[in-house]
Specification:
Length: 391
């Protein structure tokens, strides 16, 4: 009887610990107030002491201050859902999770483009002591200026109507040479890497073979067939894998022409979720750094929910998908990972990091960037230690 009571108390304590931050303290800002002494400031100190972390700020526009909260936390990826409603009062690009959440003041330009220009202009100063701009341009993180920031743009309405407007609104970043781009033969890194998903049309991404600065969100689940333990020939088309390095326009045109007609669909894209953007080509070999950056998929759809931990078969799926994407030179991101209980969430994060995922898709920026969630004591819920299953 007494033993049962003790176990019940431990279960309750474990539930509380897993559901709230381990310190159970009040929320605190990521950065302390700046000192008033003018000698403590310098031109590029916006992100002073901020260490970049490979996490993606999921639904970033929900933050108290979109973009800036993610950057100050150290996240290296942010997400903006964009809408074009030409039948309404504004023809600007609105940002929000659903149509019901949209208001005229919350636009792609005001929440993301203008703040990014302001931050990057500060990171790339032209002063008496530094009269020439750096090439390549410095990124948003003063502690690691070479680190890029991924701006994931989720097309929520018609992709062909959104495409020219998104491209136009990126012009201030493009003009200042802040965008990662493909120049026809090589990928040139910049402070901002723009990735398009949702209803984004793949044919627009690849239309210009000489210059691209909007990259596709490739379907991660399809890339598993390209893992090293799979054949180097795509089983569906029998087409040999191309090399993305020095991928000139003639090679790409010939490769695209050799694909089955259904691989590059002309039908109107439908939003199938991130990583399944619009009329997604079915041949995984087509996705390379010449046209794509992220490789994404919904975790629970592609891998399944842990019951109560990831099975050997589920881990094999994760491993093959990551290896296939890395073989193509793409960055791996899973979305829709378990968010509760906390121990399970952190256990899945730990497995993904151990397997080589490039970006953790996160809602809790403070928890993800704190750096201690991988410790065994943070992966327990009640009497169940998920951490033991990742070892």
């Amino acid at each position: 009887m007494l033993l049962g009571l003790v176990e019940f108390v431990l279960l309750i304590i474990g539930l509380i610990e897993s559901s709230f931050p381990s310190e159970l303290d009040a929320y605190s800002a990521w950065q302390s107030p700046r000192p008033s002494d003018p000698t403590s400031h310098w031109p590029t100190d916006y992100t002073a002491d901020v260490q970049p972390v490979q996490c993606h700020s999921h639904n970033d526009y929900w933050r108290p201050i979109p973009l800036r909260n993610a950057v100050e936390a150290g996240c290296t990826g942010v997400e903006a859902d964009v809408w074009l409603l030409p039948d309404r009062a504004t023809d600007d690009l609105l940002v929000g999770h659903s149509r019901a959440s949209l208001i005229q003041q919350r636009t792609f330009r005001s929440l993301y483009i203008e703040p990014l220009v302001e931050i990057l202009d500060k990171q790339n100063p032209n002063t008496t002591y530094h009269s020439t701009l750096d090439l390549p341009r410095n990124g948003v993180f003063d502690t690691n200026p070479e680190q890029d920031l991924v701006l994931l743009v989720d097309f929520k309405t018609d992709g062909n109507m959104l495409w020219p407007m998104v491209r136009e609104q990126l012009e201030p970043l493009r003009r200042r040479q802040y965008l990662t781009h493909f120049n026809g033969t090589d990928l040139v890194s910049g402070p901002i890497t723009v990735v398009v998903t949702g209803n984004a049309p793949f044919d627009e991404v690849v239309k210009n073979s000489h210059y691209r600065d909007m990259f596709f969100d490739a379907p991660l689940d399809l890339l598993a067939s390209l893992a090293p333990n799979s054949d180097d020939i795509n089983r569906d088309s029998g087409t040999a894998l191309p090399s993305w390095t020095h991928f000139d326009d003639a090679e790409e045109r010939n490769y695209l022409a050799s694909l089955p007609t259904e691989d590059v669909s002309s039908k109107k894209p439908s939003n199938q979720g991130q990583g399944r953007s619009g009329a997604t080509p079915k041949n995984p070999a087509i996705y390379t750094p010449a046209n794509s950056y992220y490789a994404s998929v919904a975790f629970t759809k592609a891998i399944g929910f842990p019951h109560p931990f990831l099975s050997w078969k589920q881990k094999q799926k994760i491993r093959q998908q990551i290896q296939g994407a890395h073989k193509q030179g793409l960055k791996v991101r899973y979305w829709d990972t378990p968010s509760w209980p906390r121990g399970l969430k952190e256990y899945v994060w730990t497995v993904l990091v151990e397997e080589g995922v490039d970006y953790l898709n996160v809602d809790d920026l403070q928890e993800a960037t704190r750096g201690d969630w991988g410790r065994p004591r943070h992966r327990k819920w009640g009497l169940l230690d998920w951490g033991m299953w990742s070892r």
